[in-house]
Design a protein that fits this description.
With 497 residues, the protein is mostly helical. It is built from 18 helices and seven strands. A hairpin with a 2-residue loop joins β1 and β2.
Length: 497
């Protein structure tokens, strides 16, 4: 069934009209647009398996990024790159990919793959027009579909003559944001951006940059605290001889620099608040003050942890010196063992498994019959029964026909009369419910149950006026009885569910 038929009508969502910028900010749209700029690159990567067999061993995404790097290195120089020079500059990388795949390098093949990559980056298949992709935006509480147009690579007519390759502004932004900065540099860059945006009056952008800076401060806090946690768990897991002492010195300097910068940001933000009126511009500046003050207090707390880090190491070393040793630096089986093994070619994987089988499995002694062990096992004392086992009680078995005689004659007469009056298939539950409705005695209901069971499994040669069958789809469940549902039918009637 289609889910939309079960969805409530639009008027059942009274809060839909209250959606505002707090649910979807313009910064989120900007980030979405940045991610969409990578779509041609991801499409290029997916097309590797669709190329002809002789071109499939080339990593088109790595070649595309190298093309961008070459263009950035030569932009503004007299010797900017054109399509011919791109192929020449990529030749060492293409030859290395050929050798890795055990394929003889070929200039024509190199020209074909470079041409395919340049064609994909410049959108040659669509007449070199901009790439177009749709995305969802939120405007005044309404979802709106928008179109994003952008270029990555284009042919630029050089003043000296000819055409050269240039990156678009979107491609340059992607190239610059792809830098793998460590936490310290990323945090310093984020706070510098906040300071610059406040001075230039870009208050909304400064608030978003402050959120980014807070994220970097949390990452740095977790980095330092992870070292201290690992030290408390096992002092041998942390390199307190070289790495951590150097890190502590750098961390103290980093914290001092950050608190100084945060003080400057707070001074600038408070000066702006003093001259701004209470309007929309004051709100993001106040948010910057709150976030930066939070980061500053976190850095003060982290400074205290750093000052006591050496004492933590000494205390833990003294405490753990008499502790039993445990295995350390165990590999992550999924990431460090299984995934690299699955990425190998079959011959290499089989060789690794053959070499690793013996040390991983160890020696297994064959099973040999030992008469001494057998005699010892036979002479050992009997084990007591577990606490969760219940002793079996022998049942006092009697003929079930005699069981009916324990009921009074009046109950037996009324019960047999009810059973004889059955003219169509009737469930035992319905029969008991009818007795209960006219306040029939409990003994009568019990007699009906026992008599029905009697007729369900009659003795050999016994003739019954009723045929009783089990109902697999039902359950007998009343106030006093519970079990499988039974169906009573007159004579030898067979009831089929």
């Amino acid at each position: 069934m289609n889910d939309r038929h079960n969805s409530p009508p639009p008027e059942s969502f009274p809060f839909a009209d209250s959606i505002d910028l707090y649910t979807w900010r313009s910064e989120l749209t900007d980030r979405l647009r940045v991610l969409l700029h990578t779509k041609p690159l991801l499409d290029l990567k997916r097309s590797d398996n669709l190329r002809s067999v002789e071109l499939r061993h080339y990593d088109s995404l790595a070649l595309a990024i190298k093309i961008w790097d070459l263009i950035v290195e030569n932009v503004g120089l007299d010797s900017e790159l054109d399509r011919r020079r791109v192929r020449e500059s990529l030749t060492p990388l293409l030859v290395a990919m050929d050798r890795a795949a055990a394929i003889e390098p070929d200039a024509q093949r190199h020209q074909a793959i470079v041409g395919a990559i340049l064609s994909a980056l410049t959108n040659d298949d669509d007449g070199c027009r901009p790439f177009t992709t749709a995305y969802q935006d939120l405007e005044n509480g309404q979802a709106v579909v928008r179109q994003l147009e952008f270029r990555l690579l284009w042919d630029y007519h050089h003043p000296a003559g000819g055409t050269v390759l240039r990156l678009s502004n979107e491609a340059i932004n992607l190239y610059l944001r792809a830098w793998d900065l460590d936490i310290e540099d990323a945090q310093a860059a984020a706070e510098a951006v906040v300071f610059s945006q406040l001075q230039r009056g870009k208050f909304e952008e400064a608030a978003q940059s402050a959120r980014n800076a807070r994220l970097q401060s949390l990452r740095y806090w977790d980095k330092i605290m992870r070292i201290l946690r690992d030290t408390r768990r096992d002092v041998r897991r942390v390199d307190w001889q070289l790495y951590v002492p150097q890190l502590l010195g750098e961390a103290l300097l980093h914290i001092k620099t950050r608190t100084d910068m945060e003080a400057s940001i707070l001074d600038t933000a408070r000066e702006r608040l003093d001259v701004l009126e209470v309007d929309s511009n004051a709100r993001p500046v106040a948010e910057v003050c709150r976030i930066v003050e939070e980061c500053r207090q976190r850095h003060f707390a982290l400074h205290g942890q750093l000052m006591g880090a050496r004492n933590t190491f000494l205390d833990e070393q003294e405490r753990q010196v008499f502790r039993l040793s445990t295995a350390i630096d165990l590999p992550a089986l999924a990431a460090n063992v299984l995934e690299p093994l699955l990425a190998m070619h079959r011959p290499a994987a089989l060789k690794v498994l053959d070499d690793a089988a013996a040390p991983l499995l160890g020696a297994i002694a064959p099973q040999i019959v030992s008469l001494a062990d057998l005699v010892t096992w036979m002479l050992q004392p009997k084990r007591g029964a577990p606490a969760d086992e219940c002793p079996l009680e022998e049942a006092d078995l009697v003929h079930y026909a005699s069981e009916l005689l324990r009921f009074p004659e009046e109950i037996r007469r009324r019960g047999d009369s009810l059973l004889q009056d059955i003219e169509h298939p009737t469930r035992l539950t319905d029969l008991l419910a009818a007795v209960s409705e006219w306040n029939g005695p409990h003994e009568l209901q019990e007699y009906l149950v026992v008599a029905t069971l009697h007729r369900f499994a009659p003795e050999l040669g016994e003739i019954s006026e009723l045929s009783v069958h089990r109902d697999p789809s039902g359950t007998l469940q009343t106030e006093h009885f519970f079990g499988d549902e039974l169906i009573l039918a007159p004579g030898n009637t067979f009831y089929a569910q």
